[in-house]
Write a structure and sequence with these properties.
5-stranded parallel beta sheet; alpha/beta; elongated; 49% helix
């Protein structure tokens, strides 16, 4: 029986990149279990006040939610075999940068994904990563190589 790899997909929540990765690993036949933060933006923002009570000060509103979200995020990053952090074009994802730094501090293998427009802004994050790619398809190719030892266009020479 082969190992089931735990892949944590962090970062940008406003596109379908996670679904593309899930479809790609399924099509590649990879033994993976994918996890992610809560990607429903409003639920993630409001979890603290929804459960623990309203706050007049936005700082405490956000602090309650961040604390609860951190339970999930930290647990899944700590248990991941590979952490993937995607930076999208629409928003500045400070939480994604934090997740990348946390994964790096834990010595978790880290793959960062972003477009060329973010290269300069993310140079320190990229330097901490084991690989930097731009597309979900490239990510799936990296995962296929790492997990199965298969590289597109090459045949097994064992």
């Amino acid at each position: 029986m082969s190992k089931v790899w735990s892949i944590y997909l962090s970062g940008e929540i406003h596109s379908d990149w996670r679904e593309q990765v899930e479809a790609g690993v399924r099509d590649a036949g990879l033994a993976v279990e994918i996890s992610a933060p809560v990607t429903h933006h409003e639920a993630s923002d409001d979890v603290g006040v929804s459960i623990l009570g309203a706050e007049d000060d936005k700082f405490w509103h956000d602090r309650k939610g961040a604390g609860i979200n951190a339970i999930r995020t930290r647990t899944l990053i700590e248990g991941a075999d590979i952490v993937v952090v995607r930076f999208g074009d629409k928003y500045k994802q400070w939480n994604a940068a934090f997740d990348a730094g946390y994964a790096a501090a834990l010595a978790r293998p880290l793959i960062v994904m972003h477009g060329p427009d973010h290269q300069h802004a993310l140079k320190e994050v990229d330097a901490a990563a084991n690989a930097v790619c731009e597309t979900p398809a490239q990510l799936v190719e990296i995962l296929t190589y790492v997990i199965e030892g298969r590289l597109k266009g090459y045949t097994d020479r064992r």
